[in-house]
Design a protein that fits this description.
The protein has a 5-stranded antiparallel sheet, sandwiched between helices. Strands 7-9-10-12-11 form a 5-stranded mixed sheet. It has 11 helices and 12 strands. It has 3 domains: about 100 residues, 2-Layer Sandwich (Beta-Lactamase), CATH 3.30.450.20; about 80 residues, Orthogonal Bundle (Helix Hairpins), CATH 1.10.287.130; about 170 residues, Heat Shock Protein 90, CATH 3.30.565.10. The protein is α+β, with helices and mostly antiparallel strands.
């Protein structure tokens, strides 16, 4: 009875287990082990070297079997694909049978999170170091006598103010993202008219778009008409979602602002329409586009396609990460399609209120 229960436990463990005798033959392997090494048939009684090609694993097992050392040994292996495994080999000797028991723990996710944390700290340090160095340099120049020249004083103080604003924006975005990720921001859900919201937001971008020779177009999805930016929407044409108005405005503002920043003498087109029981919003531009290799990472914190240009345009590198979290917190989805030199489309879906 105990043996049967033990077999069930080992078989169902989400950890690879294999027992190998001193001749290198597999005495037992559980399903998780076979799945980890892409083995699709029972392998008990077969030599480990006949079914596993990982040389680090084979060399480590041989070393433990031949050394006579009874102490457990731990190593890290690279599994199939990008999988990372921690292996613990425990030698045993019982009733004249010698060998090792191997326990394989998948630590891929833990390693990924560790890497994200390291990159996050490094990125924050780098992003803060640049404006701090500028502020310090210009302040020292002024203290060394530069403030006696009124023209120099005004110019340097303007630069210091710009870098201080950049640091403030970065810290505010960091706090917002942290609270969104930890669900510490209380979202105030209420009926929100998305079309009306977009129309109001676009008015604030008219000058910015005009200065760059950009045509702003709002396709509101009302009887197929292009509404332009001075649209008047009747109550019967409202598209209502239940959401936090402030946060949804933040999403639209960020996407439209990015579209304008990376477009010159082109078109930025915003559309909102109903698809079954979902609201679909597209923010499409005819700008520089995003290389295909960068698209899977575009919503990561601090990820920039063109680091120099993004900083020059005042971005913190956190805007799209914040947008993604806001949409997900509203039970929505967001993704991007882009062609280099032709433009980019950000699209998100939100459930329409009953």
């Amino acid at each position: 009875m105990k043996q049967t229960l033990l077999e069930i436990v080992v078989r169902e463990m989400q950890q690879g287990t294999v027992i190998i005798d001193d001749k290198g033959n597999i005495l037992y392997s559980n399903p998780f082990f076979r799945k980890t090494f892409a083995i699709h048939q029972p392998i008990d009684g077969i030599k480990l070297s006949d079914v596993v090609s990982d040389q680090v694993l084979l060399t480590t097992v041989d070393s433990v079997l031949s050394s006579g050392n009874r102490q457990p040994k731990e190593v890290t292996l690279q599994g199939t694909g990008n999988q990372v495994l921690e292996l613990r080999l425990v030698p045993f000797s019982r009733n004249g049978l010698n060998g090792v028991i191997g326990f394989f723990h998948d630590v891929t996710e833990e390693k990924r999170v560790e890497a994200i944390k390291r990159d996050f700290v490094a990125n924050v340090s780098h992003e803060l170091r640049t404006p701090l160095a500028s502020i310090k340099g210009y302040a020292e120049t002024l203290l060394d006598g530069g403030m006696n020249d009124q023209a120099v004083l005004k110019n340097f103080l303007t630069i210091i103010d710009r870098h201080a604003n950049r640091m403030t924006a970065l810290i505010e975005d960091l706090l917002t993202l942290s609270m969104l990720e930890s669900h510490q921001i209380p979202l105030k859900f209420e009926p929100v008219d998305i079309r009306g919201m977009i129309a109001n937001i676009i008015h604030g971008f008219e000058k910015q778009a005009k200065d760059k020779g950009i045509e702003l177009v709002f396709e509101c999805g009302i009887r197929g008409a292009e509404c332009g930016i001075k649209v008047s929407i009747s109550n019967g044409d409202l598209l209502i979602v239940m959401g936090d108005k402030v946060r949804l405005e933040q999403v639209i503002v960020n996407l439209v602002d990015n579209a304008i920043k990376y477009t010159n003498n082109g078109t930025v087109r915003i559309s909102a329409k109903r698809i079954d029981n979902m609201l679909q919003v597209d923010v499409q531009d005819t700008g520089i586009g995003i290389p295909e290799k960068d698209i899977p990472r575009i919503f990561e914190r601090f990820y920039r396609v063109d680091k120099g240009r993004s900083r020059e345009l005042g971005g913190t590198g956190l805007g799209l990460a914040i947008v993604k979290h806001i949409i997900q917190s509203h039970n929505g989805k967001i993704w991007v399609n882009s062609n280099v030199g032709k433009g980019t489309t950000f699209r998100f879906l939100l459930p329409i209120a009953s």
